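so im writing up the methods section and need the Pentatricopeptide repeat-containing protein record in one place, dumping it here so i stop losing it
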Amino acid sequence: MYSSCGALSEATSVFNSMPKNNVFSWNLLIGTLSQSDLYTHGAQSCYQHMQQKGIMPDQVTFVSTLSAFSDPKDLFPAHQLHTCMQSNNFSSDSIVGTALLNMYGKCGTSQTARRVFDQIQDKNVISWNAMFTVYTQHNDIKAAFELFSLMEMQGFIPNEVTFITFLPACTSQGNIAEVKRIHTRILHHNFESSVNLENALLDAYGKFGYLQLAWSVFIRMPERDVISWNVMSEAYLYQALNDEAFYLFYQMQEEDTLPDDVSCVSVLSACVNKVTLMQAKRAHIMLIHSEDELDVIAGTALVNMYGKCGYLEGAQQVFEGMPNKNIISWNAMIGACAQHGCKSRSLHIFYKMLEKGVRPTDATFFSLLHACSHTGFVEEAYHSFLMMVYIHHLTPTVEHYNCMIDLLGRAGQLDEAEAMIHVMTCPTSAASWAALLGGCSLHSDIDCGIRIINQVIKTNPENAAPFVVLSNIFASLGRLEEAEELQILRKTISNQQDVSVDFDFCEGEYIVN
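--- predicted struct ---
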């Protein structure tokens, strides 16, 4: 009883109190230990202790002990166990052999697992499926399909687990031809009534963008569960068909299928992409009807949705009403405020988050910098940037630097913005120079623009954007001739290959070196 309930201390206590232990009681203890992630090595030790006591292992002993090996570092004791199995003539047994090849799939190589598979005398569909799983885990899809052909040649009939194993592997390999081949085999073996298998097929077609095939599978399903509806909805969302995804959410409930967290997040994603506040509010109402209280996933999705739909007060109400929040929830609320330029509110939520003991991430600081950038709060942005690096020990990404460059450029602090580019701890991007150029354009700073063009010529001469921006600066100052000559220079440079070029502007003339 204690073993089946997973009560380790009680099971061990009962085992130790028994006057004499037989193979059955040892198997129960080994099985209990192997099922616990914390005591898998205890199962291995228990097996060794059993041998020291002179108890002969049986089929169950080996299967239970093998399930405790799941890491490459377990390979040496696993080999020892394999040797013991061979000496007891168990390695060719179908059940033990299947457990053994599963173990080698986790700890070793698919080649070792295949050698074990070939030694199994009385193979069954479970043995074949286990070998298929090992091949797919090791991304050896070709070997898996070759084995599948061998399976059919030898007269073994695949079951739904066989096909469910193959379909995700085909999807990850981008092999739609094999998905269609498997679909044909499913029809041939009359497995259309399996909802799990149909869901896997639906998911494969959806991820390849074959919506008509996905829909034909969906409408022909004799039975649909919530996963079926979710997978079909996500297939539409992959193709940005948000109205269709939203319709499925309604249709699912009309057919008395209760939505789950995935359903809710999908419909909220449809609202975000469509940016329709009316639909967002309807989705929120349906969410309230389907759940007693919003969990962290659905609540965070609602905050995101309202933020992107422009309804900041709605996002705030949902956020404050969430019983549990994680860092993603906090980031969503800070991001919603930042998106609407509410710098003070973003900072207020940020400091409240710190008071709750929640550790910020780089996404948190990106939202803060974004809020400061669009409201011109240079000092607060510097403070947030330094806090990120020196207090929370986070490494800024190019996006963080670009936010700072954009902010400084907007504020007219072009020298500081240019200096920020030169101290970046990560490679600059085209967006970095574009942000600085934006500041040059805003403040008509020709000298800074020329310095940027010289940098771009050295690193990315094909990038025409700096020339266009600087040309526009000249044009805005009424210096049309210089603007036109700059465009000619850009075309000249783009036609030259492997040539080092520098240029300057002096007394109305370009100097090209």
